Amino acid sequence: MSDVEKINVRIRVNGEAREALVEPRTLLVDFLRESLNLTGTHIGCDTTYCGACTVLLNGRTVKSCTLFAPMADGAEITTVEGLSTDGALHPVQNAFAECHGLQCGYCTPGLLLSTIYLLKKNPKPSDKEIRKAIAGNTCRCTGYQNILKAIRMAAGEMGKR
Amino acid sequence: MIAGGQSLIPLMKMRLARPTALIDINFIPGLSEIKNHNGEVRFGALARHSDIETSEHVAAIPILHDCAGGIADVQVRNLGTIGGSLAEADPSGDWATTLLTLETSLVCAGSQGERSVPLDEFFKDAYTTVLGREELVREVIVKKPAKNSGGAYLAFKRSACVYATGSAAVQLTLDAKDTCKDARIVLGCVGLTAIRAKEAEAELRGKIIDERTLARAAEAARVAAEPQSDMRGSAEYKRTLVAALVKRAIGIAVRRARGEHVEAGHEYVGR
Q1: Is A24 part of the contact surface with chain B (CB cutoff 8 Å)?
Q2: Rounded CA gap, B120 and A103, in Å?
């Protein structure tokens, strides 16, 4: 593939303009991790199943392993690195920590972004709505119960603000 | 050609598709619009499943909402497109099964100009359509069903992120005396393409839908299915599954035809 002409990809990640020259086949998750050194976004299954690589693309959750980086050219991306402000955790991060909504932490960046996307669209989700919203995020440690607790707590905390 | 890429990119990763070049059509403006015009809902090829799920124009056609709201998971619905799904023609895809119960046509555009293709003439085989090498789906046009018509799409899957094991779509019209004037029944995931179960439809047409007609239609659907045994289930299991889905979908379609609000769609463990 080395003779393939590279493409310059420019995106805004967590509010900052970034660009890099990459092969057209580069996946967005590899672009974030390898070109921009933002390793908070994880590669779990690499088959569009597990959701560990979930990021916000122009405000919507997508699996960054299932998007070529050039397709995101000009887009606004939010990764887990962009959630805290001045060292203070985002309320969703806080709720996951408080409720033990994680054990190994591998799926957590994706679940945090799926939660933020859910609560932006639906600030008071029912349990059924929460389950549907995180159906694209696989966790192999927690059994999900503490994740549900965390999302309920985050919804409550963010509702107060 | 790449639209949402939610099937094509996984296929490329598994080396089941090896395109030497890809044209990204996502930057073409106006291709994702959903319009309501003259008794038709028109979907640009790039309309995302999630846009369709929340579109006000789809609210009047519940079967479209059933389908759009449960395809894969949130992240995939945010990128996957109706045009891409139809053009890929996966035997387990959701849109073909759903849209074949309605009057649907596709506007296909290519170097030779545009042509309109009725959806029931679009699929030739698994992963094969009548699209030429230089052609793409530009628009999906769905005629709005009559007022006393109701439909439902049910798909059973093992988890959110996978293709369904079996699915059934039903759209039927009742007359003032609750007799079934017309019905279309389509089965998904149980053949090389979606299967129109015409014998099952005939069991409903001109009849009052009761337990007996339901059972006869379900049995006709069971016979019409052409499933293969695979990791999702045995052929016999899938026959039984689609028959049960048809039976339930008819029930929901009837209630909706009478104006009742009923939730339906994809079903999987944990939902």
Answers
A1: yes
A2: 50
